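Running low. Got one?
___
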Amino acid sequence: MAPQELHRFHEVPPQPPSPIRSHLHSQNRPPHLHLHRIPRPGLQSLNPTRPHLRQPPITTGRGPKQNTISAANYGPTWRLLRRNLVTETLHPARVKSFSQSRKRVLQDLINKLKIESKSRDDHAVRVVDHFRHATLGSLLSMCFGENIVNDQEEDVIKNVDKMMRDALVSSSSRFSVLVFFPRLSKTLFPNMWAKLEEAKTSREIVLGPLIKSRALENNNNNNYNNNGNVACYVDSLLNLSIPEEGGRKLGESEIIGLCSEFLNAGADSTATALQWIMANLVKHQDVQDKVFEEIKRVVRDDEEGIIREEDLEKMTYLKAVVLEGLRRHPPVHVPIPHAVTDDVTLEGHLVPTDASVVFLIAEMGWDPAVWDRPMEFDPGRFVDGGMGGVDISGNRGIKMMPFGAGRRICPGVALSMLHLEYFVANLVWEFKWTAREREEVDLEEKQEFTVTMKCPLYARLSPR
């Protein structure tokens, strides 16, 4: 059907009252999809068994030209960048090659938790900062190589963490006016522009030397696999060329952007999800006990006391706990918008060309038409094929999508699940987690870059 005929027979979704702030809630039931452009049509409350993300008109991203995986337009360059990340860094064999790095990070996390717990009279620890430090340490090794990070690990993590926090502040919603009205906003909001430039400069100051150090190490060794080095993400970026642009190599600013994207996408969301999961294990002691009993049945006596990654595959209840944590508390409620390339109709509504599409992740996981008692934390719903064997990749229908879905699904799904299962299993194996005396775990949410706990978790850690 021609575009003009679509306009004739299908109603455009109602427009929000403002081009900047959109309707995200419905009075009758949770919304699942929101569409907008300026002026922005909006569509809410789509069927949760939605196949729409797998249809080409919606899966194509469109926006300003940027050579990062999350922001690049769909096309040869986007496919090249994504394929490089998936095959050279996130392939199971590559991920496994960094198992010793994850083990070292885990041991460091456990030791720090023990030290802080012993130093406090009530043995209660504010855990989220430790979680962020651990996830960031693991990702830094994968990004820049273990040799570069290990030599100055604490300083590197501290500097990168500050850089990332500054960058996340500059990308918050209050800076959106700079995008909508760039010329006018430079006059009206000079301090905000200065903050934006400061964040960009900080990224170059912090990440630039790490990239150069790795490049120098590779040149000295003639090959990054010499001396037992494990190939990292930066190695692949330094060797990548873009055929559509005459075979040129990526520039330093492009590599910095891709490395920043890799770290931002993994560190904050994983640490946030880990805190939500552990908070629910503190609140629901029966669930924590079931996780511990499953671990005892699966693991063998290990002199080091660390649960091996290969043992995780046998822990079905652990996987259910992680899935339920992601369903009930997805770290990101509203993902990066995508766009349609042609007029298309969804449930009788016209989605016009160039309209942005925003799926509301949390509301999907809380939909009472799909989930029984959706606001309760119940890992049992995922056990023994519960919910029809929920597929978080979206290939067999979409009931929840904590990592997105379609061709732009987060490429790090498997790595994120590995980090969460690995940390949760070992933290429960090492400690019994309980709330502080005369306190209950507060699960109220707070919107930052991710949706985190308004009152950070303080847990009493008792060695097993």
Notes: Residues 1-60+337-360 form one domain. The first strand starts at residue 33 and ends at 36. Residues 1-9, 15-49, 54-64 have pLDDT under 50 and may be disordered. The two ends are 66 Å apart (CA to CA).
